[in-house]
Write a structure and sequence with these properties.
CATH architecture of the largest domain: Alpha-Beta Barrel
Structural class: alpha/beta
Largest sheet: 9 strands, mixed
Number of domains: 2
Number of helices: 17
Radius of gyration: 25 Å
CATH class of the largest domain: Alpha Beta
Strand content: 25-35%
CATH superfamily of the largest domain: Metal-dependent hydrolases
Distance between the termini: 52 Å
CATH topology of the largest domain: TIM Barrel
Helix content: 25-40%
């Protein structure tokens, strides 16, 4: 791990801080008369003054603030305001916002987030090491501190399992190389728990390299308990964000794991786990909030870590404790609490001003001493990112796809029993259910009236035209078809619908625009959004992407989509590392046994 330059000890900077703290040298910024939330003690300190010298805080004091003010000192009167540290998200996939790091930064800084740990394993699965480097390059110089996790599972499963056709591989030697680049900070979530618990030498070698580099390792252990959880931790993986019930979460806490409570767009675990935070008998020093995946609509309309804090408060969590879980808690886990997570001397001047604590309103946001937003107005000049052309030509389907290629042939007549993927709104988990499906003209048909649709995954990287076919229940989607190149984590093309011809039209349109989301009904394209960057993101202005996505969602609402996380739920049906069953370009996958199973039950 090579710490970003901003974390390095600079003698000249420390000398200026010392002189400013003593009133010898004027501050660059003073926030006076503010009520300060002390995240280290849980107290609220009234009428305090925050004295800033360039990027860092020189002093937090009740002394007369004018002694620190010079001719060029900016002064903010914080009377009636609360000052809290800039928020920290220790695990997020920026790609899920449909924005590149620049656009993402513009939105989350507005909501008080000043540090994130980004795991770019979405773009890494499409573009490999070069995709990770592209993220690092764009992240440098932004006012949002973006620490990069090197993806640990590219691909998500061991290629030896033969569960899907993947495009890129990041092996131990790549981790060693990337770990020497400035900006890389951790090892991304180790999702292949099957290989971990089977002591796979390949996975353990990745972990060995990560430990040698001093990388902070992020875990992924859904539903693991007992000896299997012990085996996972024994690999030296110390955090998890996949707990969905209190019993699972408590076992992980008791065994020394950092419990990251996830509240994203598609999977929301906060309500189920809130009782742990509220229980006075449970010490939550190893707890924190993460968002994992957030779409651009939620980011624009509801916020980021401020949204999670506010939702926790609504569930009865003490406001100061909720703030701690988005500041000092994650900072301690990341081993940089001497830089972030606290408003105190020597820390970065990452400060959020809010008029209330019972509902955070981020009207002023300061990152490393620079005022990014003041009373909601953007003061920082963001440059539009320059995306190379090689990152925009990633949909390699060499020919148009025909409707019948998306269907399952059968010699049976009447009906068949079929294994169907059942999804639940707001959950990353799926369920395998057996359904009676009709046979029409030699093909197994869907049953839209029972919310059972056709589902297919098409390989889009190597031009193989592999197509995995199956059925999905629970999407609540009533248009003809939807196709998208967002299909975690390999990001092949996924399509679902009731009309095979509409499905084919949607697939071929996505192929034409080189990535994105397309909705078709009765032969007409009713909505689409282009995502040319790796087939995952847009480099347009955040508001433009938000408006297009909002329009797409509005169109979808008239076709029965009842949950706003629809796209994320669909995207996850191709990820063969989260129980219970998934569909890839190779076929239907039983996740727990890591094998391909038949759709038609024999």
């Amino acid at each position: 791990m090579v710490l970003p330059r901003i974390f390095k000890y600079v003698k000249e900077e420390r000398a200026r801080l010392i002189r400013t703290a003593r009133g010898i040298e004027p501050a660059t910024l003073v926030i006076k008369n503010v009520n300060l939330v002390a995240t280290t003690t849980g107290e609220i300190l009234e009428n305090m003054n925050i004295v800033v010298s360039s990027r860092r805080i020189a002093s937090v004091t009740s002394r007369e603030p004018d002694r620190y003010v010079g001719l060029r000192t900016k002064v903010i009167d914080g009377r009636g305001q609360y000052a809290v540290p800039g928020f920290i998200d220790p695990h997020i996939h920026i790609e899920s916002s449909l924005l590149t790091p620049t656009g993402f930064s513009m939105l989350v800084l507005r909501h008080g987030t000043t540090t994130v740990v980004a795991d770019p394993h979405e773009i890494a699965n499409v573009l490999g090491v070069d995709g990770v480097k592209l993220f690092i390059e764009e992240s440098q110089g932004l006012p949002l501190k973006i620490l990069i996790d090197i993806p640990s599972c590219v691909p998500a499963t061991d290629p030896a399992f033969g569960l899907e056709t993947t495009n890129k591989v990041i092996g131990p030697e790549d981790i060693a190389s990337l770990g020497k680049l400035e900006g890389t900070y951790g090892l991304g979530e180790v999702m292949d728990f099957v290989s971990v618990t089977n002591a796979s030498d390949y996975v353990l070698e990745k972990l060995r390299v990560a430990h040698e580099l001093g990388l902070v390792i992020n875990g992924h252990a859904p539903l693991l308990t007992g000896e299997m959880l012990d085996a996972y931790i024994d690999a030296s993986i110390w955090s998890d964000h996949e707990s969905t019930n209190p019993e699972e979460a408590l076992e992980k806490l008791r065994k020394g794991m950092y419990l990251f409570i996830r509240q994203g767009s598609a999977w929301r675990d906060l309500e189920a786990l809130a009782e742990i935070i509220k229980d006075p008998k449970i010490d939550c020093r190893l707890c924190g909030f993460v968002s994992d995946d957030l779409n651009v609509i939620d980011l624009y309309e509801k916020g980021h870590m401020d949204r999670i804090i506010n939702e926790a408060i609504q569930l009865g969590v003490d406001p100061v404790k909720a703030i701690q879980l988005a500041t000092i808690g994650p900072a301690i886990r990341l081993h940089i609490d001497d830089h972030i997570g606290v408003i105190g001397p020597a820390r970065f001047a990452d400060i959020v001003l809010t008029p209330r604590l019972d509902h955070i309103e981020t009207n002023t946001v300061i990152s490393m001493g620079e005022i990014i937003y003041r009373d909601g107005e953007l003061l920082y000049d963001f440059e539009r990112p320059k995306i190379p052309e090689w990152a925009k030509k990633t949909v390699n389907i060499p020919r148009e796809i025909k409707a019948e290629e998306l269907l399952i042939k059968t010699d049976a007549t009447g009906s068949v029993k079929a294994n169907v993927i059942k999804v639940t709104p707001g959950s990353a988990l799926t369920e395998l259910v057996i359904e009676d499906l009709p046979v029409k003209q030699g093909y197994v048909s869907c049953v839209p009236d029972n919310d059972i649709l056709h589902l297919a995954v098409i390989e889009r990287h190597k031009g193989t035209c592999n197509i995995g076919k199956g059925f999905i229940k629970g999407l609540g989607f009533k248009a003809g078809a939807i196709a998208q190149t967002i299909a975690h984590d390999t990001h092949n093309l996924v399509v679902a619908g009731k009309s095979p011809s509409d499905m084919a039209k949607a697939v071929n349109r996505v192929r034409e625009i080189q990535g994105g989301i397309v909705v078709v009904d009765s032969g007409e394209i009713i909505a689409e959004i282009e995502l040319p960057v790796a087939g995952l993101m847009s480099d347009e202005e955040p508001y433009t992407v938000y408006r297009k996505f909002k329009n797409l969602m509005k169109k979808m609402s008239s076709y029965g989509v009842e949950f706003e996380a629809f796209f994320m739920t669909l995207a996850l049906v191709a990820l063969p590392v989260i129980p219970e069953v998934r569909l890839t370009d190779r076929g239907l996958v039983d996740v727990n046994t890591a094998r391909i199973i038949d759709v038609i039950v024999k």
